[in-house]
Amino acid sequence: MTEVIQKVQLVEGKFTPSEASDIISSLIAEKINFHKLQRLGRSEGNINADCEYPDNRVKELEEERMIAKEFIKIARLEGKTLRINGTLEISFDQ
């Protein structure tokens, strides 16, 4: 088990479906951009670079974004608010 050294509370609270959509979409978009930049950095000047991990991670995040959109759509149709708790746990790699 990895010891958590630091926690960063990114988001916490109740949100309307529109607010939740904005928050979740923004967070996922930032991670997608990070992996696209990683892929670009690896492949720049090397067309044979291994970009499997960033490519797969982008696909996973795009799927997660669609799942979140569907969940938020249900909340909107049912007149519900959403609670979001997003905490980063940071530790040293062993």
How does this model look, in words?
The protein is an alpha+beta fold. The protein has a domain at 17-80. It has helices at 17-43, 52-77; strands at residues 6-15, 82-90. Strands 1-2 form a two-stranded antiparallel ribbon. Helix 1 packs antiparallel against helix 2. The chain starts with 5 loop residues before the first strand and ends with a strand.
What do the pLDDT scores average to?
89
Terminal residue distance: 10 Å
Poorly predicted runs are none
Trace the largest sheet across and list its strands: 1-2
Shape: flat
Strand content: 15-25%
In DSSP terms (H or I, runs of 4 or more residues), the helix count works out at 2
Structural class: alpha+beta
Q: What's the main sheet like? A: 2 strands, antiparallel
Characterize this entry briefly.
The chain has helices at 17-43, 52-77; strands at 6-15, 82-90.
Present the secondary structure layout.
Layout: E1 6-15, H1 17-43, H2 52-77, E2 82-90
Antiparallel strand pairs: 1-2
Helix pairs in contact: 1-2
